[in-house]
Write a structure and sequence with these properties.
Chain lengths: 222, 245, 76
Amino acid sequence: MAAFRTILAKDLRVELRTLQSLPAMALFAVTTFVVFRFGLDRTSLEGSLAAGVLLVTVLFAALLAINRLFVAERDEGGFDAMRLAPIDLSALFAAKVVALFVYLLVLEAIALPVFAAFFLDDAAGLLPLAGVLALVNLGLAATGAVVSTVGVHSRARDLLTPLILLPLLVPLMIAAGGAAEPLLAAGGPSYDEVGKWVGTLALYDLVFLLVGYAVYDFLLED
Amino acid sequence: MIRLEMPSLRTMALATVVVLGGAFALAFFYAPNDADQGFVQKIFYLHVPIAICALGGFILAAIYAIAHLRTGNPIHDVRAYVSIHMGIIFGTAALLTGAIWARAAWGKWWVWEEPTLVSFLIVYLLYATYYPLRYAIEDRERQARYASVFAITAGAFVPLNFIAVRLAESLVHPRVFATSEGGLPGEMLFTFLVALAGMALLFATLMRFELAAKATRGQISRLRRALDSEAPAAAASRIAPGGSG
Amino acid sequence: MPALPLDEAGKYVAGAYVVFVALLLIYVAIMAVRIDRMREELSDLADLAERKARSTQHAAGRPQAEADERSREVVG
């Protein structure tokens, strides 16, 4: 428990001080919104189109953070330190998942209002949407932490991590899109379908948190 | 795991020929024509068993991977590797035959409305990353371990994926191939089961074949390493006949 | 879409089975190439082993002779 808190605090402090990932993620998201405005030739979005633009942008911004998640551990010998310390190695996994979750929350705190300003006609669905995004963040964080650990030990890490990660995230994105679409519908949010999609999101999060926790020791072995 | 005495490769190959050949004969001479799709439905006896065997291979790989992580025995890693390899090959065949079937029955080479095809594609794309993963990690032991982690994670992913895709399609479009599971008339069901058995035998035979080839390759490398390390000495004593001391 | 007439349907069905057989044969061909390469390497290694065996026979003679030479010098 103490190890988890220490690692998490370290990561958040480093990010706060060096601001490696967050500004890039936020800037990337806003710029991508602009690209979408011109690529789709639309100034207002709703329903599935809005959900798609938002989720794809969040996904690729998350990739930026995921790619860098373990670079410091890899380069500065953090993995070796973890192995030598008498701690449960899954603490590293838990800390990284929470750190990534926090980054994504901060990203969405910036990107969501911008998205609403750029494209949405009414902001009624935003609060429940933020709830859905929280579940999405958890799934992104769990899967991202596992794949990033694998990728950071390989040669073409910037290529390998997204390559493996994207197919794994498809069910998450399907469920996220399914949940977000009615929330962003033209006439105001509707909650018909949202239940089953939120259930699927929760299932995905549960499965990948468990799997990540179960296999993480093997990833860290030398 | 079941520990049967494995029959020889020759026996397995023969059994495959008999069962698979029999299945195809049944498909064309015994099973009746489908009411909706007509003759085109015969592809079903080819496409669906192949797809099932591909997915079976992926699940098998996850089982071997768990065994590998628990025991550290590299034989399980090799078996997982070959399972996934066969799964990808069968998966390619499934996607191609599926596309042909889609074109013949529905006029399009690909149908997003068929959730089974779509989730299969996603699973296929995921397992295709298994090779870049292995080639990207140089240390042999780590490579094997990470590959096993991947096989387990991907194995857990397969059912999740099918659920999600199925949910996404069920509202907007009715299942296109709803007739392909259950509710089959007796002759079709029987033919399908024989075809499935034949494909499973083919999968097992090819796996056996591939494992034998890998093992042989390994022995040859061993031999080369052993001989190469001594060859320089032999060469030296050959080129220094006149020298003394 | 209504069911295709038999002659057209036949082409698609045949196409699917042809794809299956083609993939199988491609696999066999790839394995054949691998086995050929293994055979070649095996015969290389057999040559290497034979040469090694022969040279050890020769070399076995020499060091013994040189050792005798040196011990004779020491003894004087």
